[in-house]
Design brief:
Layout (H helix, E strand, L loop, with lengths): L6 E3 L2 E3 L2 E2 L1 H14 L3 H9 L3 H17 L2 H18 L1 E4 L2 E4 H7 L5 E7 L11 E3 L2 E3 L1 H13 L5 H12 L10 E5 L8 H4 L5 E5 L4 H13 L3 E7 L10 H7 L8 H9 L6 E4 L6 H20 L4 E6 L4 E5 H12 L3 H13 L13 E2 L5 E6 L6 H20 L4 E5 L6 H4 L2 H8 L11 H17 L16 H4 L14 H19 L1
Parallel strand pairs: 9-10, 9-12, 10-11, 12-13, 13-17
Antiparallel strand pairs: 1-4, 2-3, 4-5, 6-11, 7-8, 14-16, 15-16
């Protein structure tokens, strides 16, 4: 038996030890095998996975573009292989993940309910932005500026304007919204707490985390439901200082029990996969959320799914957006064109690679571009974790489930700014007409987009609205901060953005 820890783990492959590289390659290869055997074999032969993984993730997107059926088959195959690969360890016994979800269904949690003590009035939607609090006409004006400057897709701007037009949508007293990673810095908790939502919070047993969650709820008008161990005394203190000591559940080690607990709720659930962990743990927590959400969805077919994607990934985009990136390359100011072209030639064409790839024709008769904004520094585990979420989202919608899948802007969260290169790159992003948002801005925008997708009959989240291609679910209503329109391959310009950001930061000191 291997020495790997409890809960969801990468399978032991090398002298009983797990390898995220071996597992990641296997999942991507099997996903590609359904539509592109040559690309699948290239993955298996790859010896520099941590440097070359963008090539293979791009192959996933390009292969999926070529036909709607291929995109669905890639998602099915990739998810099936992931479920086959990952194991669940309990009491030093190894189980296949699906087997563990069936085996450990004994209830482990009971539910605590708390009510907010704030104003019962649903708060007006306000967006904190660069020192201002934007609302009403001023917010509508800013949405128009983001759209004009290519920071957001037109469909994203339209969705935000619909929320402004329908303030009644913000009363969420009829929704029960499950937040995996409820205290997430970029998550919607603060806004849901002011919009009368029924919030089911799942986060690690950590008094500091739960104090933040409970106090957020107390200031608002929402209802909070959270798990405590089932063997807790029946007479519980209602003091926050006592409750936060026993609250919480571990997605990685208590995965089956969390699913059992959620299935005990009578009402339909809106399930939001927003938990994040560093490194290979991000893949494992994505698998945990997927296992729970899939189990709950089977038991509650009227549940919806929500995911927030990163703009620093590779996506199929509409032809208009792709063509604008190509046009921007051709229309660069003279001085910038001379400088960037000289750097491109002098440094072995590794920098300022032109974003001028040809469109890819799909079997549906439409052409699509590829927005390759993947940042190598984030690593293959991060890319795989987000790909698993994309696959589940596109497959679930294809099978008739409401799925809110939106690209959120690059956000200056702690997990980003603790990496000095990424922090400097986002600080200098305006050099290439890209915008990175503060967490409070992203919180407000993405909370509103979730409301839109749940309320608006015409939204792409609604499976009753046909899409020409499954991958259009991702390009619809995206807020990429301008990355999809950069005239260069994003990672080939990143070092210069980082230098520019570093200089700006030093100039402020």
């Amino acid at each position: 038996m291997s020495t790997i820890g409890e809960g969801i783990q990468f399978p032991p492959v090398n002298k009983g030890q797990p390898s995220s590289t071996t597992t990641g390659k296997a999942i991507v290869a099997i996903a590609l095998e359904s539509s592109n055997l040559k690309a699948a074999e290239a993955v298996r032969r790859e010896r520099q996975w941590r440097k070359q993984y963008p090539v293979h993730f791009r192959a996933l997107v390009e292969s999926g573009i070529r036909s709607p059926k291929a995109a669905i088959n890639i998602a099915k195959s990739g998810l099936a292989e992931a479920c086959k690969q990952f194991v669940f360890i309990r009491n030093r016994q190894q189980y296949a993940l699906p087997e563990a979800m069936r085996t450990f269904q004994t209830p482990a949690f009971k539910t605590i309910e708390l009510h907010g003590a704030g104003s019962p009035v649903v708060a007006e939607w306000v967006v904190p932005y660069r020192g201002e609090m934007l609302y009403g006409d001023r917010l509508r004006q800013q949405i128009g500026l983001w759209e004009r400057d290519g920071i957001v897709e037109p469909s994203h701007a339209d969705a935000l304007r619909r929320v402004l037009d329908h303030p009644e949508w913000l009363d969420l007293s009829d929704r029960t919204m499950v937040l995996f990673g409820a205290a997430s810095e970029a998550g919607p908790l603060t806004w849901l707490a002011q919009w009368r939502a029924n919030i089911v919070a799942i986060d690690l047993p950590n008094p500091v985390v739960w104090e933040k969650i409970v106090k957020t709820i107390q200031r608002g008008n929402a209802k909070l439901f959270f798990p405590v161990p089932i063997d807790t005394e029946d007479k519980l203190s209602t003091k926050v200082s006592d409750l936060v000591k026993i609250a919480g559940a571990n997605l990685l080690t208590q995965t089956p029990e969390i699913a059992t607990w959620l299935k005990g709720f009578d009402q339909p659930l809106d399930l939001a996969a927003i938990a994040y962990l560093d490194g290979e743990r991000h893949v494992r927590v994505s698998m945990a959320m997927d296992a729970v959400m899939s189990e709950v969805s089977r038991a509650k077919s009227d549940s919806s799914l929500m995911y927030m994607l990163t703009p620093t990934d590779i996506y199929a985009i509409n032809a208009e957006t792709a063509n604008e990136a190509r046009d921007r390359f051709g229309k660069r100011p003279f001085v910038r064109r001379v400088l960037t072209d000289a750097i491109h030639v002098a440094l072995l064409k590794n920098f300022f690679v032109p974003n001028t790839d040809a469109l890819i024709r799909s079997e549906n008769g439409k052409s699509y571009g590829v927005a390759d904004c993947l940042v190598i520094e984030q690593g293959p585990n991060y890319a795989l974790a987000k790909r698993l979420q994309q696959w589940r989202a596109t497959l679930a919608r294809h099978e008739g489930q409401r799925v809110c899948l939106n690209v959120a802007p690059s956000t200056m969260t702690h997990s980003v700014i603790k990496n000095p290169i990424l922090k400097s790159a986002f600080d200098g992003a305006d050099l290439f007409q890209v915008e990175a948002f503060e967490p409070a801005t992203t919180n407000a925008i993405m909370a509103a987009i979730w409301v839109h997708d749940l309320r608006c009959v015409e939204s792409a989240a609604n499976p009753a609205n046909p899409l020409d291609h499954p991958l259009e679910l991702i390009s619809e209503s995206a807020n990429h901060g301008g990355l999809w329109r950069v005239p260069y391959l994003a990672r080939s310009a990143l070092p210069f953005s980082a230098v520019y950001g570093w200089v700006k930061e030093k100039a402020r000191l």
